[in-house]
């Protein structure tokens, strides 16, 4: 527990030397839908090129939070800032990958991926040039002219990731990106994503249900409590990338996060019964 | 697949499609020839064909069929085009606004099952017999299915595809052009099919009631005075054949180059993602 306490008393890592600039700043951000409080008092700082994972019980407002950072939803209290400026609308500086992929079935793989540059007004040739780089890096070569309906789940996922990356966002928002994948494909795409992150030096914010995914990939794991949700712990995973899933130290982090999480779920269950 | 093979494959499918129809005609012909059916009420297909040739002829007193077909097609297509021009934009507006939907949905659910022919007498009082009345009736038959399908298609799009374009910095026009229109296209085509079918169906009844000199409906109705059953059957067959051609050739091709290509694999497995 000592590790957690230390980080809780220093939530933004102020003591770290030469810390990169803050990228996303949340100051008491809250989002409510009518009487339902989906997110309450979310406060944290995510720095440039940091890989942060958000984990928490189902329905605690993780997707809602991500949508607010993407600019699709407005905060009803507090502020969310990117580069020090309050978020007012969606923008190409923040790319999002939805859990359900949300590919456009009427466009081929290539056309799905060139969508961002097309909207930005780039000529077709240049748009394709940019897309091809990410098609290669996500291992989609040879499938440029396939329609999404003919792809497997894992490949759709990679198209969604390539589509977001082709817009060259500073921030990549991932909502349970491996939820629909089988274990084999998941390990493969997870490895890809780590390599991509190292190569592309983006700020990544990833929502997940899986302690294993969170600890394997992230620099920091934010654990959200059950509704009304706040950050109950901010665990820094102090291991170099890329990480070996069998690393002993990783196992200890996994255990730590799991304990905090189950305590939180227990509390939530008791609270519900008590009502 | 080589091109030659494709053409062969297509020809085989057309033959397979026509086979049951030819079978039906054969049974019909035999029934009349053996005296099972009365030729005065149910003329044999060969008699109908002979009459059709007569009517189709380019010269001669009875060479009127082309004129009737053209008159009918023109009315049905004008009505359909108007229905699309009104139904599609309105459908988009209603699909995008929850508020507007709440107001219009009850009215739509009244108008949708109402046979448009019922308006004909009222319109006859207003405008008298003629093209205007017929086109308005057909328009009323076509516009509600087009409107309703468009609305459903736009609604079914959901917010996430819109968000994808928004997060790339896309404008409202980008959302319309790159998401709403293509994603509602399957529903739009369904709406067009239904709209055209309704327009075609309504047409016949409207022409019987309101046409002065031309149209297939008029031809069938006018033949009644001479007990000319063969001509009536020619009219019925033309209506069926043209309706089928529009559905299969026109909209079939449209579906083939759009939806079938996009959802190629799911078409075989059933669902669509
Ligand atoms: N548009 C909405 N209107 C009303 N309530 C909503 C809306 N969107 C989300 N909520 C509610 O807000 C809460 C948080 O939802 P959210 O989808 O963010 O949870 P989540 O943490 O992503 O859950 P999961 O892990 O199951 O995906 C839920 O109780 C949900 O019912
Ligand atoms: Mg979620």
UniProtKB/TrEMBL annotation, chain A:
<dbReference type="InterPro" id="IPR017871">
    <property type="entry name" value="ABC_transporter-like_CS"/>
</dbReference>
<feature type="domain" description="ABC transporter">
    <location>
        <begin position="24"/>
        <end position="251"/>
    </location>
</feature>
<keyword id="KW-0547">Nucleotide-binding</keyword>
<dbReference type="InterPro" id="IPR003593">
    <property type="entry name" value="AAA+_ATPase"/>
</dbReference>
<dbReference type="InterPro" id="IPR050166">
    <property type="entry name" value="ABC_transporter_ATP-bind"/>
</dbReference>
<protein>
    <submittedName>
        <fullName>NitT/TauT family transport system ATP-binding protein</fullName>
    </submittedName>
</protein>
<comment type="similarity">
    <text>Belongs to the ABC transporter superfamily.</text>
</comment>
<dbReference type="InterPro" id="IPR027417">
    <property type="entry name" value="P-loop_NTPase"/>
</dbReference>
<dbReference type="GO" id="GO:0005524">
    <property type="term" value="F:ATP binding"/>
</dbReference>
<keyword id="KW-0067">ATP-binding</keyword>
<dbReference type="InterPro" id="IPR003439">
    <property type="entry name" value="ABC_transporter-like_ATP-bd"/>
</dbReference>
<dbReference type="GO" id="GO:0016887">
    <property type="term" value="F:ATP hydrolysis activity"/>
</dbReference>
<keyword id="KW-0813">Transport</keyword>
<dbReference type="Pfam" id="PF00005">
    <property type="entry name" value="ABC_tran"/>
</dbReference>
From TrEMBL, chain B:
<feature type="transmembrane region" description="Helical">
    <location>
        <begin position="203"/>
        <end position="223"/>
    </location>
</feature>
<feature type="transmembrane region" description="Helical">
    <location>
        <begin position="132"/>
        <end position="151"/>
    </location>
</feature>
<feature type="transmembrane region" description="Helical">
    <location>
        <begin position="76"/>
        <end position="96"/>
    </location>
</feature>
<feature type="transmembrane region" description="Helical">
    <location>
        <begin position="103"/>
        <end position="126"/>
    </location>
</feature>
<dbReference type="Pfam" id="PF00528">
    <property type="entry name" value="BPD_transp_1"/>
</dbReference>
<keyword id="KW-1133">Transmembrane helix</keyword>
<dbReference type="InterPro" id="IPR035906">
    <property type="entry name" value="MetI-like_sf"/>
</dbReference>
<dbReference type="GO" id="GO:0055085">
    <property type="term" value="P:transmembrane transport"/>
</dbReference>
<comment type="similarity">
    <text>Belongs to the binding-protein-dependent transport system permease family.</text>
</comment>
<feature type="transmembrane region" description="Helical">
    <location>
        <begin position="229"/>
        <end position="251"/>
    </location>
</feature>
<keyword id="KW-0813">Transport</keyword>
<keyword id="KW-1003">Cell membrane</keyword>
<keyword id="KW-0812">Transmembrane</keyword>
<protein>
    <submittedName>
        <fullName>NitT/TauT family transport system permease protein</fullName>
    </submittedName>
</protein>
<keyword id="KW-0472">Membrane</keyword>
<dbReference type="InterPro" id="IPR000515">
    <property type="entry name" value="MetI-like"/>
</dbReference>
<dbReference type="GO" id="GO:0005886">
    <property type="term" value="C:plasma membrane"/>
</dbReference>
<feature type="domain" description="ABC transmembrane type-1">
    <location>
        <begin position="69"/>
        <end position="255"/>
    </location>
</feature>
């Amino acid at each position: 527990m000592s590790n957690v306490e230390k980080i809780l008393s220093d939530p933004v890592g102020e003591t770290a030397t030469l810390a990169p600039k803050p990228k996303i700043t949340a100051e008491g951000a809250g989002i409510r839908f009518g009487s339902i409080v989906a997110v309450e008092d979310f406060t944290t700082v995510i720095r440039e090129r940091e890989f942060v994972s958000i984990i928490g019980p189902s329905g605690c407002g993780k997707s809602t939070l991500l949508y607010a950072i993407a600019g699709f939803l407005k905060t009803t209290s507090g502020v969310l800032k990117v580069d020090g400026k309050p978020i007012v609308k969606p923008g190409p500086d923040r790319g999002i990958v939805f859990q359900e992929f949300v590919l456009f079935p009427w466009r081929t793989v290539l056309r799905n991926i060139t969508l961002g540059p097309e909207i930005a007004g780039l000529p077709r040739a240049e748009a394709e040039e940019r897309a091809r780089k990410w098609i290669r890096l996500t291992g989609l070569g040879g499938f440029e002219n396939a329609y999404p309906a003919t792809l497997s789940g894992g490949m759709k996922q990679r198209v969604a990731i390539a589509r977001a990356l082709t817009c060259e966002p500073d921030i990549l928002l991932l909502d349970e990106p491996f939820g629909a994948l089988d274990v084999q494909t998941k390990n493969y795409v997870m490895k890809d994503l780590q390599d991509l992150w190292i190569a592309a030096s983006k700020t990544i914010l990833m929502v997940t249900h899986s302690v294993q995914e969170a600890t394997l990939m992230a620099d920091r794991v934010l654990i959200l409590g059950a509704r009304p949700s706040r950050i109950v712990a901010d665990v820094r995973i102090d291991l170099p990338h890329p990480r070996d899933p069998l690393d002993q130290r990783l196992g200890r982090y996994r255990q730590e996060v799991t304990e905090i999480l189950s305590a939180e779920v227990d509390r939530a269950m008791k609270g519900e019964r008590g009502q | 697949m080589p091109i030659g093979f494709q053409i062969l494959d297509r020809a085989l499918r057309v033959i397979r499609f026509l086979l049951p129809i030819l079978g039906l005609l054969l049974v019909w012909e035999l029934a009349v020839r053996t005296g099972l059916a009365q030729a005065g009420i149910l003329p044999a297909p060969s008699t109908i064909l002979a009459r059709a040739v007569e009517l189709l002829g380019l010269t001669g007193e009875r060479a009127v069929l082309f004129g009737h077909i053209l008159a009918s097609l023109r009315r049905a297509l004008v009505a359909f085009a108007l229905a699309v021009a009104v139904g599609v934009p309105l459908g988009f507006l209603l699909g995008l606004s929850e508020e507007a939907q709440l107001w219009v949905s009850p009215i739509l659910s009244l108008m949708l099952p109402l046979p448009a022919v019922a308006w004909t007498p009222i319109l006859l009082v207003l405008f008298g017999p003629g093209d205007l009345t017929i086109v308005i009736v057909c328009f009323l038959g076509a516009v509600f299915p087009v409107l309703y399908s468009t609305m459903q298609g736009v609604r079914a799009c959901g917010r996430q595809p819109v968000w994808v374009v928004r997060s790339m910095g896309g404008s409202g026009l980008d959302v319309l052009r790159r998401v709403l229109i293509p994603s509602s296209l399957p529903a739009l085509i369904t709406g067009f099919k239904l709209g055209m079918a309704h327009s075609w169906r309504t047409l016949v009844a409207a022409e019987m009631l309101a046409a002065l000199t031309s149209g297939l409906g008029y031809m069938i109705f006018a033949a009644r005075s001479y007990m000319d059953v063969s001509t009536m059957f020619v009219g019925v067959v033309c209506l069926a054949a043209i309706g089928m051609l529009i559905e299969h050739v026109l909209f079939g091709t449209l579906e083939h180059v759009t939806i079938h290509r996009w959802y190629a694999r799911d078409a075989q497995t059933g669902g669509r993602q």
